Amino acid sequence: MIPEQLFERTLRTLLAPVAPYLNDPSVSEIMINGPDRVFIERGGRLERSAARFESADKIMAALRNVAQFMGGFIDEQHPILEARLPDGSRLEAVIAPVAHGGPSIAIRRFSQAKLTLEQLVEFGALSGDAAQALIATAVAKCNIVVAGGTGSGKTSLLNVLAGVVPSDERVLVLEDTREINIDREHVVYLTARKPDEHGEFEITIRDLFRASLRMRPDRIIVGEIRGSEALDLVQATVSGHGGCLCTLHASYPHDTMTRLETMCMMSDLNMPLAAIRNQLGSGIDLIVQVSRLADGRRGVTHITEVAGFDPERQSYELRDLFLRVHERNARGELQSQLMPTGILPRFLPKLTAHGVELPAAMQRAAQREPHA
Fold it and tell me: Are 183 and 165 in contact (CB under 8 A)?
């Protein structure tokens, strides 16, 4: 293993062509598609940069350095590398024979400054009323799934929601790779481990979840649900472990529930689908859907209550509490705002029991547009 300080200095030298972007807080992603095609994402927009490497061998030297530090390999037998850089950035690399035209690398950078709900409102990702509603549901230990596509801001929003959890609660965070960082005193971080070259000593998110249930958690936060651990999460939510937070990849609230279904069925418990659906409908309280907006910004598009599963219609009862409304201004520019729909959630008693209330705007919208 390479000492961390030496690794960082060496890597900076090897990645010198893209060093300005690694130092630029406005750059959220660096994509290296071979030696002379380097793209960056800034403000949600892709642009080609002037950076270039002398050769594919120079890129490979950087990747071998990263792999060595991580205790892994990158070669023809191991053409995919997942790693974490010293500054916290996440690196994914694919080389030949899988990648053509040279090594392909994506470096996802994470802001060192911690976002707040107030900042998300300022950026237009949330409305003030939606932020108040999310604070209330998080404090009241609602089980919340943050869903969205790649790079839509799921982890950033999860970090923000975790930050409003009352400080006297014990929080356990389970992740594949370390991305969540909560500014609080009592938090335990658990990270999964990949198997070694012999396929041994793997620690999965599911292993961590089972361990966490015996560690007296007030809250369990899962960085991303990807497989059979979904069933463990759902069973925890219906057995008294409230306030669970997690993310997963899905484009719309209905897709979120379908994906959770599919992942629950990956479990070795062979639970009937009807039972899975009933538990999902009962255990999940809220879906917060995030997406890239038309102008490249990231924002919340739906805040949706999961009100149960209807066996007659064979569908989940999803009730949008907030929806993003799009309209063009006088100059013809497309604008959007997250607005209350007039629907009040059926979990209102849970909020009352925790001494929190929904924003008045939701009450006013409900009076204008009464719903069942």
Answer: no
Alpha carbon of 315 to those of 219, 280, 284, 345: distances in Å?
A: 29, 11, 14, 18
pLDDT, tens only, 283-292: 999 999 999 8
Architecture of the domain spanning 4-108 = 2-Layer Sandwich (3.30)
* CATH number of this structure's domain 117-368: 3.40.50.300
Q: What is the pTM of this model?
A: 0.85
Instruction: Tell me how far CA of residue 12 lies from CA of 21, 34, 48, 334, in angstroms.
Output: 12, 18, 21, 41
Pick 101 or 165 by higher pLDDT.
165
| CA proximity to 246, closest of 138, 353, 133, 332 | 138
The tokens for 365 are 């919208």
Task: Write out pLDDT tens, residues 26-67.
Answer: 898 999 999 999 999 987 788 999 999 999 999 999 999 988
Single-letter residue type at 92: E
Domain boundaries, the chain: 4-108, 117-368
| Chain centroid offset of residue 119 CA | 18
Q: Which of 197, 169, 142, 184 is nearest to 348 (CA)?
A: 142
Q: Look up residue 124 and give its two tokens.
A: 């237009």
What tokens appear for 42 in the block? 């800034």
Whether 257 contacts 276, CB under 8 Å: no
Q: What is the pLDDT of residue 208?
A: 92
Residue 146, C-beta contacts closer than 8 angstroms, at least 6 positions apart: 154, 157, 158, 161, 245, 246, 247, 288, 290
Mean pLDDT of 300-304: 96
Mean pLDDT score, 88-99: 90
